[in-house]
Design brief:
It is a single chain. This protein is α/β, with parallel strands linked by helices. The chain folds into two domains: 133 residues, P-loop containing nucleotide triphosphate hydrolases (Rossmann fold, 3-Layer(aba) Sandwich); 105 residues, Helicase, Ruva Protein, domain 3. The chain is built from twelve helices and seven strands. It has a five-stranded parallel beta sheet with strand order 2-3-4-1-5. A two-stranded parallel ribbon has the order 6-7. α7 crosses α8, α8 runs parallel beside α12 and α10 packs across α12. The two termini are 41 Å apart. 34% of the residues are buried. The mean pLDDT is 94.
């Protein structure tokens, strides 16, 4: 199975949920997924990736292997040819999917374009990975809700003006197109952006309230300690976007 879409849209969370569902249905024996990367499959020289991949799969029988940026399994030479070390891993993975088809599950994830290109490196890949779940970028309203829900167990409240400030920033990010053609909200990684901004805003709030406490001699309320104001969110968004070099007019 393939989970495709921009970063921060819930692909890993979905894979974790599928692990529990598949275990409940008896498709796999263990609900926990095993997250892997290229280094888990590939050795340092030609001939080493096949055994290493086989060993990894043997240890993972009864579980779901999950690999984000699935296409990183095979690197490309300057002339576009796939590297042999990665191809060995792909070949062994395809063998395992056939031999252990009743006790092994693999989920790959990443950007749809890159995943589709990767499937062409071996004719067997497209046949094996013929089920695809597509994830879309979050809307501004959805990102605000993610931030609100992320803040709830942290006893953080986003006041209405701050919610609108975050929504306005997300609308700008949706409209911005990066040099590589990506939307700004995808560059900022969608749900991760909402969580990152909330954490930044919390630190700004804490500094603001501490300064208020020093100057007003203890007149800080519980509401002050819990509530994010518009300026907290605006500054947090500006700082996060500056780090990614995404221009924003706040």
């Amino acid at each position: 199975m393939l989970l495709v879409g921009p970063p921060g849209t819930g692909k890993t969370t979905t894979a974790e949920a599928l692990g529990k569902i598949y275990a409940g249905l008896g498709i796999v024996r263990h609900p926990e997924i095993v997250e892997v990367k290229r280094a888990d499959f590939c050795g340092e020289h030609i001939g080493s990736s096949g055994p290493k991949t086989n060993e990894l799969i043997s240890r993972s029988l009864g579980r779901i292997l999950f690999m984000d940026e699935f296409y990183s399994l095979v690197e490309r030479h300057h002339d576009g040819r796939p590297d042999m070390i990665g191809m060995e891993a792909v070949n062994q993975l395809l063998v395992a999917l056939e031999v252990h088809r009743f006790d092994f599950c693999f989920i790959g994830a990443g950007y749809e374009k890159e995943v589709d290109e990767f499937l062409t490196v071996n004719p067997g890949l497209a046949g094996r990975f013929n089920r695809k779940l597509r994830f879309e970028s979050y809307s501004p309203d959805e990102l605000v809700q993610i931030a609100i829900r992320y803040g709830q167990p942290r006893a953080t409240v986003i006041d209405p003006a701050a919610q609108e400030a975050l929504n306005a920033a997300c609308r700008q990010l949706r409209a911005y197109i990066a040099p590589d053609g990506s939307h700004g909200i995808d560059v900022m990684q969608n749900g991760r952006f909402a969580r990152n901004v909330l954490e930044r805003a919390e630190r700004l709030r804490d500094s603001r309230v501490a300064a208020q406490n020093r100057t007003s001699r203890g007149s800080v309320t519980i509401e002050d300690l819990e509530t994010l104001r518009a300026q907290d969110l605006i500054t947090a968004v500006a700082n996060a976007c500056a780090e990614k070099r995404v221009p924003l007019d706040l």
